[in-house]
Design a protein that fits this description.
- GO terms for molecular function: hydrolase activity.
- This protein has about 160 residues and is of the alpha+beta class.
- It has one domain: Hotdog Thioesterase (Thiol Ester Dehydrase, Chain A), CATH 3.10.129.
- Helix content is about 25%, strand content about 40%.
- The protein is globular.
Length: about 160
């Protein structure tokens, strides 16, 4: 029947997105940085999180660690949303910190830019609760030899 193939493709894509969200949630690092990944469509991701004093350096603003982690993760998952068989590895990531991050709610928005075979490029921006950008970054991600299906946390609906 016409449309059956498209419906199956959409279901497989959605299952991949949910499995990536599950993989993100299962990562031990996220016990230190409470956050939630959302993948709504291919090549896009959003990580929702709150920054508080636990993430601050001595001068009372967020340490660069949280900037990097959230931007890298958002760009990574935007790129890995396009790759269904392998885990990607970050090979380079450039950051631009545009304003101090204080306590509050934030979203790291990831977007795939180019590449689809061996190396993919994606960018991310960090936005505060008022919609102001606090940082942005661009990363390159390479396909690894690690199958997604073999990773704890990557669960597709059966």
């Amino acid at each position: 029947m016409p449309g059956d193939s498209a419906t199956r493709d959409q279901a497989a894509e959605s299952a991949h997105f949910r499995a990536l969200e599950s993989l993100y949630g299962a990562a031990p690092i996220n016990r230190l940085f409470e956050s939630r990944l959302e993948i709504s469509c291919s090549g896009r991701s959003a990580i929702h999180f709150e920054a508080d004093e636990r993430h601050f350096h001595a001068a009372g603003a967020a340490h660069g660690t949280i900037y990097f982690k959230m931007l890298d993760d958002a760009a990574f998952y935007a790129a890995n949303s396009l790759v269904t068989d392998r885990f990607l590895l970050t090979t380079a990531f450039n950051l631009l910190l545009t304003r101090p991050m204080r306590a509050g709610r934030f979203v790291a928005e990831g977007r795939w830019i180019s590449g689809s075979r061996r190396v993919l490029v994606a960018e991310a921006r960090l936005v505060d609760g008022q919609g102001e950008e606090t940082a942005r970054g661009t990363g390159t991600f390479m396909r690894s030899k690690i199958p997604l299906a073999g990773l704890d946390g990557y669960r597709t609906a059966s």
